[in-house]
Amino acid sequence: MAAARIRPPRPVWSVALPMLAIVLLILTWHRALPVPVVAVVACFLVGAVLAAVHHAELVAHRVGEPFGSLVLAVAVTVIEVALIVTLTADGGPEAAGLARDTVFAAVMITCNGIVGLSLLLGAVRRRVAVFNAEGTGAALAAVCTVATLSMVLPTFTTSTPGPRFSPTQLGFAAGSALVLYVLFVSTQTFRHRDYFLPITTEGEVIEVEEHVHPPTLAQAWTSLVLLGISLVGVVGLAKTVSPTVESAVRTAGLPSAVVGVVIALLVLLPESLAAVRAALRDRVQTSLNLGLGSAMASIGLTIPAVSVASAWMPGPLLLGLDATHIVLLALTVAVGTLTVIPGRATPLQGGIHLAVLAAYLVLAVSP
């Protein structure tokens, strides 16, 4: 008779850190902070990220894939939208391109950073990283289409001066992004859910996690609430330290786009850590679901939200990418397509994606 599996107790830190992060957020909100306090806030920010990953994995284990990946992607992106809108409204005309910079940074980090690192770790662990080409290819196609319609076309349209849409064009871009995101979610979770499930090296679908007892319904709901609290803490504390980041960027003489990169890196930390842990458990498909799903959620939810918010935000909404970023996006599309087609990858493919991300980060600092 098999031994009964016992659910492990919830770690105390996973409950305490989100609560402490919220308390710290309340105490520091809209206050000028000295450097030592900023350092403390940064430490609790990292703690909230780790707590978010822990609770997201518990929820994911309860609901199964690909719903678990979708929970974290949507939760993080909704709060990311709130952060972008808040910073854009407070930043004045200088923040007109913040939404574009943050969304493009999120696309590059997810499609090259998360995807590349997951493939590299999965391939090193199993010699070849295996994933479902049908589901991953559909996700990549959706990301590429929405990114092009939202951030490449504004550079070439002529109705309005500068890299921005006219009101009609902006409405179309926002509507198409939202519609494609809804279609992507319905495809991923219902009509073709099996395309997004982890598979073995032999190509067999893994329906359930082995050797791990799923949490109870009450535990899952508690983790979902704590996940939301953790994410509020992550984004709130990120906004708290953002003035220090912006000041450091200006002092160092770096481009303003670096602020968008920092925001995207902070907000995507939970998904990045969750993707790495999934890849180390030989669940590369879960990692790709997190990476490409986060990219799709970032564009599909952020663009419509900032489009609506632009009606009352000061200054124009600049969405068009410059020539350098268009080249990097085109390279990402080409490399991603060649990676996805075979349905398996070696460490080389992971290294190529990471090289593209490194090029983006270098050019963001030194354009």
List key phrases describing it.
367 residues, mainly alpha, two-stranded antiparallel ribbon, A middle domain of Talin 1, globular, 12 helices
Written overview of the protein:
The model is unreliable at 1-6 (pLDDT under 50). It contains twelve helices and two strands, in the order H-H-H-H-E-H-H-H-H-H-H-H-E-H. The protein has helices at 12-28, 35-63, 67-91, 98-126, 133-156, 167-191, 217-251, 257-267, 269-280, 284-309, 323-340, 347-365, and strands at 129-130, 344-345. By secondary structure, the chain is mainly α. The protein has a two-stranded antiparallel ribbon. It has a single domain (13-207, 214-365), classed as A middle domain of Talin 1, CATH 1.20.1420.30. It is 74% helix and 1% strand.
Q: What's the short version?
A:
The chain has 367 residues and is mainly alpha-helical.
Number of strands: 2
CATH topology, anyone?
A: A middle domain of Talin 1
Name of the CATH first level: Mainly Alpha
Order of helices and strands: HHHHEHHHHHHHEH
Report the β-strand fraction as a percent range.
under 5%
Q: What is the global morphology?
A: globular
Supply the CATH superfamily name: NCX, central ion-binding region
Helix content: over 70%
CA-based gyration radius: 20 Å
Ranges where pLDDT stays below 50 over 5 or more residues in a row are 1-6
Our count of domains comes out at 1
CATH architecture: Up-down Bundle
Distance between the termini: 64 Å
Please identify the structural class as seen in this structure: mainly alpha
Number of helices: 12
**Order of neighbouring strands in the sheet with most strands:** 1-2
Q: Characterize the main sheet.
A: 2 strands, antiparallel
Average pLDDT over all residues:
83
